C-alpha cells in the first residue's frame, strides 16, 4: 500500500515541475514538439529509475553519519554527508553517458532531434533533485527509493508532455506579440501548477480528519516549509 | 575607468538586460522560482551563484587548454560540485537558519544550467579576467530577476521586506491594513513565481521589439 501511495504522491502531489520547479530549463526548451518531449521524458524516467536507487545505496552505506559501520567499529563515527553532492552528480553523469550511448545506437533520429539536451540531462535539476529529496526525506527502503525515482520521473514526463501538447495548439492562437513563446509558456505553467495543487487532497480523501488538515497545510505553506512538511509526511507514511 | 575597457564593461552590462540568462537564454530557472518567496533567500541565492560562477569561470578558463574535450562535462561538474560544497559549508557555518530555508536548493546550484552554459559558451574560449567579468555579469543578471521576483512576492504575499513590516501590522491593523488591505497569500505559493517571471518577460519584450519570438 505504501508503495502505491508514494508512487501517486510523487507523480501528482510532489510533481517535480509543478510543485518544486525542478528541471525547468529543459522543460521550457524542449517542449515545442510532442515527439521530442516524449523522447526526453522517457530518457529522464530511465535515468531517474536507475540513479535514485543507486544513490540511495551510496547514501545508506557510505554517506550517512555512521554509515561506514560495515567497515568495522572504528569507522562508526564518520560522517561523509558533505560529499553527497559530488558522489550523486558523478553517478548521474555516468548514467547519462550510458543513456546517450544507448539512444545513439538504437534511435539515431531521436538522438539527433534531442541534440545538446541529451547530455544536459546530467544538469537537469529534476534528477539531482530527486536524489537530494530522497536523502532529505529519509526514504527507508531500496524498494521505496525505486518507486520514488520512477514516480518522480513519470511526473516530469507527464508535465513536459502536457505543456508540449498545449504549445502545439497555442501556435494557432492570437497571443500578444511580446508574450509569445517563452512568456506565455511561463504563465501556462503557472496555471497548470495551480491546477496540480488540487491533487494535494487526493490521498487523504477517505482518511481521518487530522491527516486531511495536515495535507492542506502542506499545500498552503511557502516552499521552504513545504519541503520540510513533506519530509515529515513521508516519514509518517512509512 | 582604466580597469575595464569598453568591451569588458559590456560583458557585465549585457546580461543585465538584453541577454539576461533567465528571460532570454532560458537558463537557471529552477532555483530562480523555488526560493523567491522571501527577498532574503533570493539575495543569498544570487550571491552564492555569483561566487560559484565567477570562481568556476576563472578555474575553467585557466584549465581550458589542458581539459580533453571528451570528458569536459565531468571536469566541469567536479569543479562546480567542489565550489558548491564550499558555499554550502560556509552557509551552514555562518547562517544555519538560512541554509535550512534554502534546503536542497543550494545543492541544486550544481545543476544550475547558467553555470554549465557559461563554462561551455565563454570560459572554454576566453582568458581568466574576461571569464571572471562574464561570470559576475551573468550572475548579476540572474540575481536581478531573483531580487525583482523576491521583492514582489514578499511585499504582496506577507507585507514585509527582508522581514521588516513595511505595510504595517496585519494583526494590530496599522498602516495599509487599517484601510482594509489584506495580504495576498497566493503570492507565497509557488505558481505565482512563474506568473511573475512571465510578466517580467512580457514587460521586457514589449519594451524591446527585437526580442519578440514567433511562437
Automatic annotation (TrEMBL), chain A:
Organism per entry: Formosa sediminum
Pfam families per the UniProt record, alphabetical: Rnf-Nqr
Family annotation (NCBIfam families): nqrE (TIGR01940)
Subunit structure: Composed of six subunits; NqrA, NqrB, NqrC, NqrD, NqrE and NqrF.
Annotated EC: 7.2.1.1
Stretches the record annotates as Disordered: 207-238
Localisation: Cell membrane; Endomembrane system
Name of the protein in its database record: Na(+)-translocating NADH-quinone reductase subunit E
InterPro entries, A to Z: NqrDE/RnfAE, NqrDE/RnfAE_oxidrdctase, NqrE
Keyword field contains ATP-binding: no
Keyword vocabulary terms for this entry: Cell inner membrane, Cell membrane, Ion transport, Membrane, NAD, Sodium, Sodium transport, Translocase, Transmembrane, Transmembrane helix, Transport, Ubiquinone
Free-text function comment from the UniProt entry: NQR complex catalyzes the reduction of ubiquinone-1 to ubiquinol by two successive reactions, coupled with the transport of Na(+) ions from the cytoplasm to the periplasm. NqrA to NqrE are probably involved in the second step, the conversion of ubisemiquinone to ubiquinol.
Listed GO biological process terms: respiratory electron transport chain; sodium ion transport
Gene Ontology cellular component terms for the protein in this record: endomembrane system; Gram-negative-bacterium-type cell wall; plasma membrane
Spans traversing the lipid bilayer: 6-30, 37-58, 78-103, 110-133, 145-166, 178-199
Originating gene: nqrE
Its membrane topology: Multi-pass membrane protein
One of the record's GO molecular function terms: oxidoreductase activity, acting on NAD(P)H, quinone or similar compound as acceptor
Organism domain of life: Bacteria
Catalytic activity: a ubiquinone + n Na(+)(in) + NADH + H(+) = a ubiquinol + n Na(+)(out) + NAD(+)
Top-level EC class as recorded in UniProt: translocase
Family statement: Belongs to the NqrDE/RnfAE family.
From TrEMBL, chain B:
Compartmental location: Cell membrane; Endomembrane system
EC code(s) of this entry: 7.2.1.1
GO CC entries: endomembrane system; plasma membrane
Major place of residence: membrane
Alphabetically ordered keywords of this record: Cell inner membrane, Cell membrane, Ion transport, Membrane, NAD, Sodium, Sodium transport, Translocase, Transmembrane, Transmembrane helix, Transport, Ubiquinone
Name of a matching Pfam family: Rnf-Nqr
Catalytic activity: a ubiquinone + n Na(+)(in) + NADH + H(+) = a ubiquinol + n Na(+)(out) + NAD(+)
InterPro entries per the UniProt record, alphabetical: NqrD (IPR011292), NqrDE/RnfAE (IPR003667)
Gene Ontology biological-process annotations: sodium ion transport
Bilayer topology annotation: Multi-pass membrane protein
Stretches that traverse the bilayer: 43-62, 74-95, 101-119, 131-152, 185-203
Domain of life: Bacteria
EC top class named in words: translocase
Example of a GO MF term: oxidoreductase activity, acting on NAD(P)H, quinone or similar compound as acceptor
NCBIfam families according to UniProt: nqrD, PRK09292.1
UniProt function note: NQR complex catalyzes the reduction of ubiquinone-1 to ubiquinol by two successive reactions, coupled with the transport of Na(+) ions from the cytoplasm to the periplasm. NqrA to NqrE are probably involved in the second step, the conversion of ubisemiquinone to ubiquinol.
Subunit structure: Composed of six subunits; NqrA, NqrB, NqrC, NqrD, NqrE and NqrF.
Family to which this protein belongs: Belongs to the NqrDE/RnfAE family.
Database matches in HAMAP family: NqrD
Protein name: Na(+)-translocating NADH-quinone reductase subunit D
Gene: nqrD
